[in-house]
Amino acid sequence: MRVALFVTCLVDLFRPGVGFAAVRLLERLGAEVVVPPEQTCCGQPAYNSGDFANARAIARQVLDAFDGYAHVVVPSGSCAGMLVRHYPELFRDEPETLARAEALAARTRELSAFLAEHGSADTLDVRFAGRVAMHDSCSARRELGIGAAPRALLDALGAARVEFEDAEACCGFGGTFCVKYPDVSARMVSDKAHAVTASGADVLVSGDLGCLLNIAGRLKRMDSPVRVYHLAELLVGIDGVPGIGDGDTR
Amino acid sequence: MKPTSHAFADNAHRALDDATLQQALAKAGVGFVAKRRAAVAELPEFDALRQAGRAIKDHTLAHLDHYLLRFEETLQAAGGQLHWAETPDAACAAVLEICRDAGASIVAKGKSMVGEEIALNDALEGAGFEVVETDLGEYIIQIAHEPPSHIIAPAVHKTRAQIAALFEAHHRQPGLARPLESVPQIVDEAREVLREKFLSADVGITGANFLIAETGSTVIVTNEGNGDLSATLPRVHIVLASIEKVVPNLEDASVLLRLLARSATGQEITSYTSFFTGPRRSEDPDGPEEFHVVLLDNGRSRLLGGAFHDMLRCIRCGACLNHCPVYGAVGGHAYGWVYPGPMGAVLTPLMVGLEEGAPLPNASTLCGRCEEVCPMAIPLPKLLREHRRQEFDRGLVAGRSRWALAAWAFLARRPALYRLASRAGARLLHKLSRGRGRFAKLPLAQAWTAARDLPAPQGDTFMAQWRRSKRG
Ligand code: SF4
Asked: Domain ends where: B300, B316, B332?
């Protein structure tokens, strides 16, 4: 099984460890992982800013880079949602490209969904017995309907899942929203960080690095003891790996 | 009402700093969400109902001309009169003329968002009529001289203490104080003051949740019964409605009513669902002598078949407001016009212009919770994005954002160059973080770092490390 990994721009830039964790998890399923070099970003910043011309240009680039792979895996619900739900929308009026976009959408999976579908729970080689809060990104939850898959993986790790208040609310990241309306965003992420801290979780995970950078940033500012990781990192073991926003010395 | 939507950022900032407002919002939000959730959970076929409701609206909108003309016929057959109004001014003029012809001095008004849209109170008061709001929430904001902050709960931004103080100031002669501590006491107080007015009003104005083409009826739902009193006691009843409110028949209305109550307040049905069909007939025990329907377009017909067509399905239930994290944080007034929240962020730019309303579609994370709860399955995030597209194409995006986006896109479209730039950026930031893992402050990142730290990159980019590894 050949799997093409769409790294995502945030993982590439901020948290390469998530990419390598994804590679390890996929290889344990027996996959040969390929990282097409012509990838940059899924184009969502342009799309959500109304710049459809650039969004289409970047989408075409992704269509080309991931042409011919039977499986495309993305360690982000947001970017996966862009490929799966929004590329077809972008090319609604271009039949040829639309067909390619729909084909890509059908081959693309968010990482935790792919792992769960392919029996990753049986191939994990670490355990984590701590209390874990799972944050679903809005895209994973509402655009892709992912919720059971990451939880099944956490259960396989032996983690104690803890619930927190208003879990279905957005964390306030929203791409450029967080810098366009910083005080509204700050309020939203504060509510989220308080709820997570109050849950008594040792660790917060999510499948989306955007949310994680945002929530971790607020948790650190509040001096919350909760450590923050991408789900993929927890699944390969976080011993000796500083959490998001934590220093080397921790 | 003069819109202040262009100043959303400032409005929002003030709202976030307003402790009393925050108290009121926190209380309201939780209640609405929990009630809707319970009501939907009790109805396993809610999704099927939603599909049925959507189909009814889609069908009606596809044949809107037919159903509107049919409604005109049946309304006239029942003895009512229809007044077509293309613009808010035309609608106000029609209402004023009816009031003048009736020789009215006091006008009793039930809750009507179309009334807000056309700024009817200003028009009536400007022409010398006394306007009495009979809906408790509307009455509260009327004496507070404020616009509504929610489409079904206009005074939701007020705390109980604020309302008691308002009543205290407006109803009391000095020394004549009655306690106004509990909700029932407040309601009783309002009832006493308002009942007088009902009895002396010459014209009653109400909104409409639906217009029934088959029967010429108008339908209104309330929980206070004030709509019925505004409609039946005065000599003349005027119904304000907009053209997308028409549905083919009573069966269709009943499907939509079930969706509306559950989505709005979590009720199976509102306390009062009133159907009005023409003026009083000879065998009727009560009812008005004249029955008028003022039907507003205000740009809606232009939306038919266009990018915003889906918005015409909206039944004004308010669920998207109640579930919106931005609305929940800043309340309705920050949106700067009549319609707030996600539905307002779509409608306001369409009704007051994209320039004035420009910030609203951007003030959203597109989290999709509104679309998820919308009983009419309106793709609100998609419509917000469509506004953003039009703003971008029309050059309404601020220079700095535009420039930053262009610079980023230039790189993102050139993978080799992008890899160099992202690598340089990641390494530089990693180095600057000096092993602390995050930044409390960073030049050009104040918007982020004002309230949260910025996690630092781990080191080299993934792409560079991958290439270096033997597999690359
Ligand atoms: S957009 Fe949907 S949820 Fe919002 S008010 Fe209209 S019908 Fe209700």
From this structure: B300
Cα(B319)–Cα(B265) distance, rounded to whole angstroms? 8
- Residue B57 CA to ligand 1 centre (angstroms): 13
Residue B65 makes CB contacts below 8 A (sequence gap 6+) with: none
| Beta-carbon separation of A50 and B392 below 8 A | yes
The domains of chain A are located at 2-116, 126-236
In total, how many domains does chain B have? 2
Print the domain residue range for B429: 403-471
Instruction: Select from A15, A142, A173 the Cβ nearest to the Cβ of B372.
Output: A142
Residue range A126-236 in CATH 3.40.50.2300: no
Q: Return the residue whose CA atom lies nearest to atom 7 of ligand 1.
A: B314
Which of B113, B350, B378, B380 has most ligand 1 atoms within 8 Å of its beta carbon, as the pocket-test mutant? Answer: B378
pTM recorded for the entire structure: 0.96
DSSP element (H, E) containing A228? strand A227-230
Q: At which residue do the structure tokens 């109550």 appear? A: B261
Q: Which residues contact A5 (CB under 8 A, 6 or more apart)?
A: A19, A22, A23, A26, A33, A34, A35, A73, A74, A75
Q: Which of B447, B451, B459 sits opposite A221 (nearest CB)?
A: B451
Is residue B377 domain-resident?
Answer: no
Q: ipTM for the complex?
A: 0.97
Reading chain B (472 residues) residue by residue, the pLDDT tens digits are 889 999 999 999 999 999 999 999 988 877 899 999 999 999 999 999 999 999 999 999 999 999 999 999 999 999 999 999 999 999 999 999 999 999 999 999 999 999 999 999 999 999 999 999 988 999 999 999 999 999 999 999 999 889 988 888 888 755 555 677 777 888 888 888 788 777 889 999 999 999 999 999 999 998 887 777 788 789 999 999 999 999 999 999 999 999 999 999 999 888 899 999 999 999 998 899 999 999 999 999 999 999 999 999 999 999 999 999 999 999 999 999 999 999 999 999 999 999 999 999 999 999 999 999 999 999 999 999 999 999 999 999 888 889 999 999 999 999 999 999 999 999 999 999 999 999 999 988 999 999 999 999 999 999 999 999 865 4
